[in-house]
Amino acid sequence: MVDMRVPSTLDDAAVVLAVKALDDAKSRLRPLPRAHDDRPTLVAAMLADTLDAVTAIGPRRVVVVSPDARVHEIAAGAGATAVDEPVDAPAGWTPLNAALARGAAATDASVIVYLQADLPALGPDSLRAALDAAASLDDAPAAFVADRDGSGTAMLVAVRGFAPLFGGGSARAHRAAGAVELDPDRLRWPDLRTDIDTPADLAAARSLGLGPRTRHALGG
């Protein structure tokens, strides 16, 4: 039997996020407002707002994996550990999941919280509530929160050794691997579910309330 035991204070858990090189990130995020069409700056701002929500709940450790020195600076400014992205993903691993695994390996925490790094509307209350829901589970190796359309994964909480399966169709993949979906009707935590890939996602996040850095990056 596996007992999740994931306290909302993250006493024995590490939060791991992965970010591409800023110049390569979010290629589908077009168009942006003409006067603020600077994707690298926006991606950096979304990461900073996400980290604000994470650090507000007092995690034991936060790890940010990226090849980009600018991302490392943002991570350090938030009190997180910055780790370089693997040069080559192992066979059968996508670059994203290899990066997340590298982040998990950088900590000795027994539980890993894999979190999307582009959650500009995320508030600590939703993050804490979702972790409380995960903490209530027994006999489960992992739990996850699907993204707003239900196909992707916004957050995966897993015991060490449970491999992250982020990417297209990751909600189905995590479910098939034995992870329990939290709030499968997607009625709660809209700010946690709204990761940003397209202008429509950004509009949805705006309606929830953007973090201060993202608002500033968009001129708001």
From TrEMBL:
NCBIfam families assigned to the protein according to its UniProt record, in alphabetical order: F420_cofC
Protein name: Phosphoenolpyruvate guanylyltransferase
UniProt-listed Enzyme Commission number(s): 2.7.7.105
Top-level division of the source organism's lineage: Bacteria
Key words, A-Z: GTP-binding, Nucleotide-binding, Nucleotidyltransferase, Transferase
Alphabetized GO MF terms: GTP binding; phospholactate guanylyltransferase activity
Family the UniProt entry places it in: Belongs to the CofC family.
Matching InterPro entries: CofC, Nucleotide-diphossugar_trans
Residue spans crossing the bilayer: none
SUPFAM superfamilies, sorted: Nucleotide-diphospho-sugar transferases (SSF53448)
Main function: Guanylyltransferase that catalyzes the activation of phosphoenolpyruvate (PEP) as enolpyruvoyl-2-diphospho-5'-guanosine, via the condensation of PEP with GTP. It is involved in the biosynthesis of coenzyme F420, a hydride carrier cofactor.
A Pfam family it matches: CofC
UniProt catalytic activity: phosphoenolpyruvate + GTP + H(+) = enolpyruvoyl-2-diphospho-5'-guanosine + diphosphate
Pathway(s) it belongs to: Cofactor biosynthesis; coenzyme F420 biosynthesis
Sites where the protein binds phosphoenolpyruvate: T153, G167, S170
Enzyme class (EC, first level): transferase
